[in-house]
Each structure stands twice: as structure tokens, then as C-alpha cells.
Amino acid sequence: MKRVVLLFVLIISGSFLVTAQEAWNLKGTLLDxxxxxxxxxxxxxxPGKVATSNENGVFVFSGIQPGRLSLWIEAEGYEPYSMTVxxxxxxxxxxxxxxxxxxxxxxxGMSDVVLIALxxxxxxxxxAGSSLLSAGxxxxxxxxxxxxxxxxxxxxxxxxxxxxVYMNGIPVNDPETGRASWSEWGGLNxxxxxxxVVNGMGLAPFTFGSLGGSTNIxxxxxxxxxxxxxxxxxxxxxxxxxxxxxxxxxxxxDGWAITFSGSRRWGNEGFVDGVFYDAWAYFxxxxxxxxxxxxxxxxxxxxxxxxxxQGPATQEAYDLAGSxxxxxxxxxxxxEKRNSRIKDFHxxxxxxxxxxxxxxxxxxxxxxxxxxxxxxxxAPNWYNAPDPRPDYYRYLPSYASDQSTKDLIAEQWKTSPxxxxxxxxxxxxxxxxxxxxxxxxxxxLENRRTDQRxxxxxxxxxxxxxxxxxxxxxxxxxxxxxxSFKIIDDLLGANFWRDVDQFAERDFTGDTSKLQxxxxxxxxxxxxxxxxxxxxxxxxxxxxxxAQSEFVFDDVEFFAGLSYTGQQFWREGLMRNGRYPDNxxxxxxxxxFNDIALKTGGTxxxxxxxxxxxNGLYMxxxxxxxxxxxxxxxxxxxxxxxxSERIVSGEVSYLMRYPFANLRLTAYHTIFDDQTEINSFYxxxxxxxxxYIMAGISKTHQGVELxxxxxxxxxxxxxxxxxxxxxxxxxxxxATISYDNGSKPDxxxxxxxxxxxxxxxPQTATSLxxxxxxxxxxxxxxxxxxFDNNYMDFNPERRTQAAIANLGPGDPxxxxxxxxxxxxxxxxxxxxxxxxxxxHEYFINLNFSLSNILDNRDIITSGFEQxxxxxxNKDVNKFPPKYYYGYGRTFFLNLAFRY
Length: 899
Hints:
Layout: H1 2-22, E1 24-32, E2 43-46, E3 49-52, E4 58-62, E5 67-74, E6 81-87, E7 92-99, H2 109-118, H3 130-133, H4 139-147, E8 164-167, E9 170-171, E10 195-199, E11 213-217, E12 227-235, E13 241-248, E14 256-267, E15 277-289, E16 294-302, E17 305-308, E18 313-314, H5 315-321, E19 330-333, E20 336-339, E21 342-346, E22 349-357, E23 362-382, H6 403-415, H7 424-436, E24 443-466, E25 469-490, E26 497-498, H8 502-507, E27 525-526, E28 531-552, E29 556-573, E30 586-587, E31 591-605, E32 610-621, E33 645-658, E34 661-683, E35 688-711, E36 716-729, E37 734-739, E38 747-750, E39 762-774, E40 778-791, H9 812-818, E41 822-823, E42 826-839, E43 842-851, E44 860-864, E45 882-885, E46 890-898
Parallel strand pairs: 1-7, 8-11
Antiparallel strand pairs: 1-4, 2-3, 2-5, 5-6, 8-9, 10-11, 12-13, 12-46, 13-14, 14-15, 15-16, 15-17, 16-22, 17-21, 18-45, 19-20, 21-23, 22-23, 23-24, 24-25, 25-28, 26-27, 28-29, 29-30, 29-31, 31-32, 32-33, 33-34, 34-35, 35-36, 35-37, 36-39, 37-38, 39-40, 40-41, 40-42, 42-43, 43-46, 44-45
């Protein structure tokens, strides 16, 4: 009898289940817009009913009466989505609904102002932006990208060249430096928000990958929803105003999809005096669906930008000016602020992509890209005249020998603003006097330009061999041509500039050939727009082939990959330099490198909620073009014993995933060998540019990363992030010193920096925050952040035998000269709030953020020792370090209107 009753219950239950399955009248599938992966746990609302998407992204409603209704979708980390549905008596399947990821600030405009601030370092002493470019959905990555970036934070201490960035699968890292330049697509937030992000050494579906991770920016118009969007932003950081317009058709019934986006960012100055901003941006994407399996997409974008620079200063100059945001680069001219150092660039790119789904198991994508344009840095130059920089060390009180003079100079700084500013009127007056004598300009503004042109092709194939085995591979070829030269930007009232090396003219009196920058056209008088000083081309042919396999089983996943990279590069001199007449003009020998990389990793699924991941990498990497030549401006010589660097790295992670909690804990260890670092600077005593090259450098980067998010309630979450690192030099490299004016032969010296900390990033960074996701798309975030173990960039010459010569053993001055300065720890508090409204078919998004709420204006974000040292008196204070200070309280307001 019990069996009969049980059978009856099962039959009835089954019939109800079947009825429920068949009685739905509205359903849909939620997918990530960029990756196409299913979104589970999203909340879908219609009047009177709520549903949640399952592990396949599917949501279902039943028992809905016919008529028009509004449907709202909320998914954590994604923009809200709404639509109007007309229901009849027939079931409706809405199909795939693509959800767009939301940045932590509610709008990616925050990345604009952060990266611009980081890129203000014209001397490239910091290589910021690597964390921002790799921002993904992982809580640690997002915090590192947005919350930590104002402190020049670098994930794992890696420089930017260790992150690979792609545009529709095509690499966009600079061939000369290896770094990705975000500014080339700055202001195009709407068009470039879709990304595939791989952190660390994990498996990447679009490339072999890199040590620090890989990011693929996807601009396909078919992935953009049909919309018209207008955005206005207001800030007090770098630019003041931003206006963006985006129009997209989505994929139309005729198989065409079009996206257009444009922006304007501008401001006379932001947080720092004299730092103006003037930028435009444009984007056009056109995609044609040829048939069910093939599509072609054309993309054109660029971001012409011109912006003033902020200069570092010594603490003495900051104190004299009464502000830690003193900027020595600007001064008044005719009552208006004028900056003496300007970044001016425009490097557009044209891409043609083919997307082929040859079968359900085989995908074949191809890309062809052409980029061109210029990247310039405008700065003053002078000849036989006083240094125009207002904070030049000889103009400061500390240089004076008696106290009365010190006091007088200090009083002038405080009472006469023109003393601390760039004196434009004085430069014009001196040049007018030179005109009267028929002489060359004493002062000019020169534009140090690199005009690049490159053609890139890539092809990627992905094949599912078996249900548990995927194979991916590809080839890339790049041809690069970078022309570097100087042009006259402004003669500052003078009639001409004489194209000779004034430093060589001093050191080689009577030898008229050595002072010539170009023996093929000696003693040339140059005017605005003319090339002078140096002119050369760096050529490179670069290619890569890679393959990787991925195995996916119920309890374990693992992969293995191999890549081969080859290249050939050479220098072509367009001027015959007087110091190197036989080694500067024409083509240099061609240098070839062949490098390999091996990568493997796996994931063990302890349960459906707990995972262990292990990844490992070995690779060799040829030196980048900028690090290959001793002095590319004037001669063909490369570094002695030029070789590829070697990198070995491993990481192990524990992951926990629950509906109420997510956690990632990672430990990593990376070894760099045979690295090269080049610093080029003007040497006051020698009156010439000096190239200081350290080769054979070894480093170790090791540490722990933690990212955790726990739901306190259904609306309130707590976030904890920590990065604890230990990045050090582990050997004593050799340095080669090259002098542009040829006054001294190249020299070498041993640099004692073993166990020094790698500078340029906090090695400790932590954040605790609360995130509130309220009803109807209200959000509120607050973060408390702490930074420590940030070390100053050091002058290698202070760590040589010459620096401590004639000092006896145990002399305390040895420690004073050689120790590395640790910057003070820092604490910041940030908050942001956002709200979205839907009015009929229109969406309004409002976001407001405050950074450094406590207005701490004493935070040193980075600093460097000057590349000068008093070898005679061993006085480390004669040339004190220079610092950058982080902004005080700043805001960012963003208003977007979309329909």
C-alpha cells in the first residue's frame, strides 16, 4: 500500500513538474556581453514577480497575463538592463540578453583621470597603468586598478611591459618600450569597455599570454547594444570637463552593425597649477555579417591630445612655494599661464578583423592593423645662457654660502611669484638681444618626436578536438618603423637656431667637425618646424607563433602552452654626427633574437565551491628597442653582450566561491635575470646628455595577494584586499656610461645594489571597504586604504666604489651615501555613490566619487634621486631628491543619458 501511495505521489508531482515546465510564457538567457559566458544569480523583475537566472543564465516566468510590461534585470557587477515586452497568449523566448560589465566607479571615466595623472611623469621614471589596464571582474584586480592606482601601484611590482594588451586580438604594446599606451584610445570609454581579461599567468583564449596578464579590448559593433548615449563629466583632477557621445545600431536585420563614439576632454588646469588639458577622441566601427559563419569588422580610432606637464621638485622648493603641488614648469606670459613642457600626440589605428565560426567546434579569427602618427614631448632648450628652470639648484637658498643671502632668496620666493615661475618674458628679451647681434637663439622650445608606423597581422585558430580537449594557436607578424627626431616648436622671438652641439663646441674648441649634429649639412640655421639635433629610424620585424592545449574534466582542468618569438632590428641614421662620423649615418648591422616561452597550469576542484590553481612560466625576452642601443640619438652601437632576459615565475591560488562570499588568496614568486635599465639625463657638470645603462640585472618579486568579498546582507557587502610584496635586486650589475658630446669615452663600473628594493610602487597595499547595492540601481562604496614600503628610485652612481672613495671603513657617511630612502606610509579614504533612473525608454545614470576624502596633502606617491652626486665633498644634500605628491581631496561627477 505504501508503494502505491508513493508511486501516486511521484506521478502527481511529475505531472505538476511537467505542467510547470510547459506553462512558462516568458523566458530569456543572460550572457556576459564580452565573453558570452552565462550569468547566474541575476535578479529579473516584472510587476508582481521576481525570478533568478540559473547556472546557464536562464530565467523563467509563468502565469503572466497578456499585455505590455516592463522587465528589469540586476546582476552584480553589471549595468542595469530594462526592456518593454508585449505578451500575447503564446510563450515568448527573449533569447540571449547581453549584459555589460560596470566599472567599480559606475563609469570608466574614472580610469581617464587616474591614468592621465600617472602618465604625467615625462621622464618615464614610473611606468604606471599596468594595474588599470588589467582591471577585470576579480575583486583584487578591480581594487588594484582603481583604488590603488593613485599611489603608482603596480600589481606584483611588474612594470608595464609585463602586461600584454590587444585590440581585437592584435597586440598594441609599443615595440620600442614594450609598454601599452592607454592614451592612444583615451576618452573612448564606451567603445572600449568590452574586455577579455586574464590575470597573471592563467590560460588566455586569445593569446599565449604574458607574465603579468593579458587584456583583449573588443570593439566589435555587433557586441554593442543599440543605443544613443550622451555623457558629461566634471572633475578637479586632470581635465575639468568631459563630453562623450556614442551611437550604436546593434546588429541590424540586414547584417550590418555600426558604432560611432567621440569625446572631448578639456580644462585650463585641474588640481595642479598650469597643467592644461586639451584632447579629442573618435571611434568608428562597422561590422558586416557575411553569412551565418563569417563576419568582417572595420575599426578606426584615435585620440589627439595636447596637455601640460607637472614637474617634480625638491622638498626645499615645495616648502619655499608653500605648497606640495608647486609646479616649476609654468609661468605667466601676457597675463596667461603657459606651460613649458607639453605632451602632444596622436597615434590612430585602423583595424580589419575577420571572425569565422567554421563549425560548432572550429573558430578562425584574423586581423590586420595599421597604425601611424606622432608622439611628441615639448620642452625648453638653451645655448650659452642661464638655466631657465626656476627651481634650478643654484637659484635656491641652499646653494648660497652665507645666511643673509639664503634669507634674501627665501624671502623673494615668498613675496615675488615670478621668482618661482618660468620667466617667459626674460627668455624673449634675451632672444631679442641676440637678434640685434645677428646671433642664434639663446632659448627655444623643442619637440622631441617619435613618428611611428607599423603593420600588424594576426591569425588565431581554436578547435575543440574532444569534449574535454581544446587546442588554440596563432601567428602574429609586425613590421615597425619609428622615426625619432627633434623639431623647433617655438623660437621664442628669435630668428633662428644654429644646429650644432653646444656642449661639444665647448669641449672641442677649434674642431668644427665634432660640434656638428649633421656633417652632411653643417652649421645649418633651423627655424620652426625644421628637424635638428638628431634624426634616426628604428626598424623591427617581429613575429610569434604559439599553441596551447586545454583539458577540462569534472574535477580537474589543466593547460600547457608554447610560444616562439623571433625578431630582427636595426638603426638607420639620417644624420652624420660629428662625434661619430663613421658610425651614425646609414644602416647599422641587423641584430636577431630568437626566444621561447613555456607556460602550464591547472585547477583542482576540491568541491564545487573550493578550488586550487597552480600556474608556472618560463620565458626569454629580447631587449626592447629603447634598451638595445647605447645612444640611439647619435650612433649605431648597441650594448656590449646584448642578450635576452630570462624570467621564471610560479603562482598558487586558493579560491572560494559561495553566493554570499568570494575569496582569492594567491602566493607568487618571480625571478628576473639579465634585465637592462637605461636612464638618460642631462649632466650639469659635463654639460651633455648622459646615458646610464645597467645590464645583467637580477631581481626577485615575491608576495601574497588577497581579495575577498562577503555579503553581510542581501544589499550590503564587505570587501577586503591586500597585496604584500617583497621586490628586490639580487645581484650587482655592471653599468655603462655613454656621453653624447663625446667628451669622454664610454666607461663601465660595478653597481652595488644587491638587496635594494625595486622602486616605484608600494610593496604593501591594503583596502577595506563596504559596498551597498540598494533598490532601483542605487549603489554606495566606501574604502579605507593603507600603503607602505614604497621606495625611492635611486641614483646608481651613489652605489659605486667612486662614490665612497677615500672614506675609511666604518665611516657613517658610507651608510648615508648608499642607503635607499623609504617613502612615508600613507592612508586614504575614498567613496562613491551612483543612481540610475528609467523614465519610459530613457536611462539616466548619475555617479559621484570622492578620493582622498580626508584631504591629506602630504602623501608622497613617488620620488627619485637626481643623477648627480658631489663626489668631492660627499654631500648628499647638494643634489637632494625630487618628489611627486598625491592630490588632496578630488571629485569626479559623471552624468549619462541613454536611450
